TrEMBL record:
One of its GO terms (cellular component) is actin filament. Keywords: Coiled coil, SH3 domain. This is Proline-serine-threonine phosphatase interacting protein 1a. Residues 5-264 form the F-BAR domain. SMART domains: FCH, SH3. It comes from Nothobranchius furzeri. Residues 98-161 form a coiled coil.
Length: 400
């Protein structure tokens, strides 16, 4: 176990009025306060990023389409959107946790500021009194020493005058008075008294210094512990977020495992199939052929039609031949550019919901029965329901 060094044993001044140690501690506290603010700023920025990211995910999930897909792939796609929105909400919740941690850090920093302020005021007051009395003591000491020097000089002068044959009684009396005055001076007492007061004040200052050092060291212990724990908790939050994200994505992977290609294609075939055989080819039929029949769906006539007025009809055919255009198979070609639509009045049932996207479209729900008026080659059918007509995707309907 490491031995904890104490502030009170390591930050005394180098001389009597020096406060280098105290100033070093105060600088450390200021740096620690700056680190607290930097930690708060880090958490704030991360919270903002998490909130923005979460909202973007929710927006993407809600805007994603996939409404036209069917069966198991549709289920997987819908689950992907759901889980993406869940992940977004989880990141928004994480943002809230980080903001709460920032508030706790700010409250902690303010509490330390108030505690520190009291001890700083006490230390400044004690230091100021110590310096003031120290200067006063030094001045009284200098004055006292100066008096002593003058007294020594006066005594030496008196001795010289006493042994000198030329000295007058008046000179000797004057020197004796000066010596008496200097010896009666209270400078010695004043200097001694100031030193005693200074020593008492010094002891008080040392106690204040020790209390402040202990308090400041405890603040540093608390500050380092709080910041360390905040960063630790932040990492735990991020790790937990990764676990929650993976759980959401695992749900999507599980759904995708159930996505079957054959099942989806079979579902499409069973729900939208039209005919199991291709249409019969169109064959050329002579209008006057007795064997004409309506075998391929085209217009035909009953057997037994007699070829009467043969010459007249042949002449008519010869007359109209220049105006007829035939294909290589003998079938009349269609007019270029003409788009043919199939008209029908059959009833169809809606397989899926559809919300109209334009004024010319019609909204339908699953199970609605509509009457198809016209089938466009572009996949959009004109239908009628309850007297209201509009376009819907033909792939959403199945014949009753």
């Amino acid at each position: 176990t490491k031995m904890a060094l104490q502030f009170k044993d390591s930050f005394w001044g180098k001389d009597f009025i020096s406060c280098d140690g105290y100033e070093a501690i105060i600088q450390r506290l200021n740096d620690g306060r700056r680190t607290c603010k930097d930690t708060e700023e880090l958490l704030k920025m991360r919270a903002s990023a998490e909130e923005k990211y979460g909202k973007e995910l929710v927006s993407i999930a809600r805007k994603a389409g996939g409404l036209v897909e069917i069966c198991t792939l549709r289920t997987s796609f819908d689950d992907m959107k759901t889980q993406m929105e869940n992940v977004g909400n989880l990141h928004i919740q994480l943002s809230g946790l980080l903001k709460d941690e920032v508030k706790r850090m700010e409250e902690f920093r303010e509490r330390q500021k108030e505690q520190r302020k009291k001890f700083e005021i006490s230390m400044e007051k004690a230091q100021k009194m110590k310096v003031s009395l120290y200067k006063k003591t030094i001045e009284s000491k200098k004055s006292y020493e100066q008096r002593c020097k003058e007294a020594d000089e006066a005594e030496q002068t008196a001795e010289r005058l006493g042994s000198a044959p030329t000295a007058t009684p008046k000179q000797i009396e004057k020197v004796n008075k000066l010596l008496y005055f200097l010896l009666q001076d209270e400078g010695d007492y004043v200097s001694s008294s100031n030193i005693e007061q200074l020593d008492t004040l010094r002891q008080e200052w040392e106690l204040t210094h020790i209390d402040a050092c202990e308090m400041f060291q405890q603040q540093e212990v608390d500050r380092i512990s709080v910041i360390r724990n905040a960063l630790w908790v932040h990492c735990n939050h991020l790790s937990m977020q990764c676990v929650k994200d993976d759980e959401c994505y695992e749900s999507v992977r599980t759904t995708l495992e159930s996505c079957d290609i054959i099942t989806d294609n079979n579902h499409f075939v069973e729900g939208r199939k039209t005919s199991s055989t291709p249409p019969a080819p169109i064959e050329y039929q002579n209008y006057y052929d007795n064997d004409a029949a309506d075998s391929n769906g085209s217009a035909g006539f009953i057997e037994g039609v007699k070829k009467r007025f043969t010459n007249i009809i042949e002449n008519l055919l010869d007359f109209f031949t220049p105006y007829q255009t035939q294909t290589s198979e003998g079938v009349y070609a269609s007019i270029p550019g003409l788009q043919v639509t199939q008209a029908s009045s059959d009833e169809y049932k809606a397989l899926y919901d559809y919300i109209a996207q334009g004024e010319d479209e019609l909204s339908i729900c699953v199970g609605d029965v509509v009457v198809v008026k016209e089938k466009g080659e572009d996949g959009w059918w004109m239908v009628e329901r309850n007297g209201i007509s509009g376009l819907v995707p033909g792939s959403y309907l199945v014949q009753e």
